[in-house]
Amino acid sequence: xxxxxxxxxxxxxxxxxxxxxxxxxxxxxxxxxxxxxxxxxxxxxxxxxxxxxxxxxxxxxxxxxxxxxxxxxxxxxxxxxxxxxxxxxxxxxxxxxxxxxxxxxxxxxxxxxxxxxxxxxxxxxxxxxxxxxxxxxxxxxxxxxxxxxxxxxxxxxxxxxxxxxxxxxxxxxxxxxxxxxxxxxxxxxxxxxxxxxxxxxxxxxxxxxxxxxxxxxxxxxxxxxxxxxxxxxx
Length: 234
Prior knowledge:
Blueprint: E1 11-17, E2 23-25, E3 31-33, E4 42-46, E5 49-50, E6 61-62, E7 67-77, H1 94-101, E8 107-109, E9 116-118, E10 121-126, E11 129-145, E12 151-162, H2 171-175, E13 189-190, H3 197-203, H4 210-216, E14 230-231
Antiparallel strand pairs: 1-2, 1-3, 1-10, 4-7, 5-6, 7-12, 8-9, 10-11, 11-12, 13-14
Helix pairs in contact: 3-4
């Protein structure tokens, strides 16, 4: 019997932007896998303009390539099942949400008159939805407390922005990220008669990673796979 599909959880990770505005992963950067996926994603596109049609003024001119804003709400609750990358003995929800506030801490670049303060770049990734930019605001509401007064549940509302209007959707969003694909969102491999995990991994061009493939798909016996079983690709 095929293993049940694994739910894809949204994640936020730290990135930097090169001179062309392309996002690059940060080695050992901050990475957060959400505990509960957001119910909605709110996108807003806007242009900045100057001038007008009033007498004596020039016609309206757009002075930037546009801005895209993303707003969403995230919930964290240490009384329930914690994110995979968190310790099971956390008793204060702020130990998790503090990772999000990291993206509000601006870093100094340059010096003197050229000094500027810039927040860390980030990537919000959920299935085929990708948003790369910076965090503009974060509102945290603590809603449930232990008898000792420790906050156990929090709602975090965040607003992100990027200086372009370039919506990414469908599989094209994932294609740009290469190896960032999450199991459960890619095309699956169907097991055929006589297949083993070694042979299937070989078909994927990764014969030396058959043990990882078996663990990913929760296959206990890599030599005996039910014909027709759909397997997530590495």
